Amino acid sequence: MSSGNAKIGHPAPNFKATAVMPDGQFKDISLSEYKGKYVVFFFYPLDFAFVCPTEIIAFSDRAEEFKKLSCQVIGASVDSHFCHLAWINTPEKQGGLGPMNIHLVSDPKRTIAQDYGVLKADEGISFRASRILRFWQLVGCYPGWVLPFTRN
């Protein structure tokens, strides 16, 4: 796993990237938009991967609970925003996500994954990992999981 620039107790690396929003629209977002909020920022390897849908759907299903705690949930992978949208538009029964209540960020240049220390450089994908941000400061890191396994 890459070391990255994200360190607990230090400002979280800012990013600007295209995300698929809950309404299915594309929007350029940056971490600075969430200043003053908590952010659960999770990474996953690839869209349409075997393990990923269950955990992403679980985050989405609880988005309202996070919102009540002034917390935004953001997912990211190295796939394009077009691929994210295709996965969202694919029914769950066919390996898709279905409608999402969270933002899915596209990181095709792998800079966000690199900055947050979750890039599996030899494969060009990110590990499954979570970062907890409080008011733009990294306060928690949950390490990358071995790729066939998931978070719980």
Helix content: 10-25%
Q: Count the domains.
A: 1
Q: What does the largest sheet look like?
A: 7 strands, mixed
CATH superfamily: Glutaredoxin
Strand element count: 9
Characterise this structure:
By secondary structure, the protein is an alpha+beta fold. It has helices spanning 52-61, 63-68, 81-89, 111-115, and strands at residues 16-20, 26-30, 38-43, 71-77, 103-106, 119-120, 125-126, 128-134, 137-145. The protein has a single domain, classed as Glutaredoxin, CATH 3.40.30. The strands form two sheets. A seven-stranded mixed β-sheet has the order 2-1-5-4-3-8-9. A two-stranded antiparallel sheet has the order 6-7. Strand 8 (128-134) and strand 9 (137-145) form a beta hairpin. It is globular and about 40 Å long.
How are the SSEs ordered, and which strands pair?
Layout: E1 16-20, E2 26-30, E3 38-43, H1 52-61, H2 63-68, E4 71-77, H3 81-89, E5 103-106, H4 111-115, E6 119-120, E7 125-126, E8 128-134, E9 137-145
Parallel strand pairs: 3-4, 4-5
Antiparallel strand pairs: 1-2, 1-5, 3-8, 6-7, 8-9
Name the descriptors.
152 residues; alpha+beta; Glutaredoxin; 7-stranded mixed sheet; two-stranded antiparallel ribbon; 4 helices; disordered C terminus
Question: Summary?
Answer:
Helices cover 20% and strands 31% of the residues. The protein is built from 4 helices and 9 strands, in the order E-E-E-H-H-E-H-E-H-E-E-E-E.
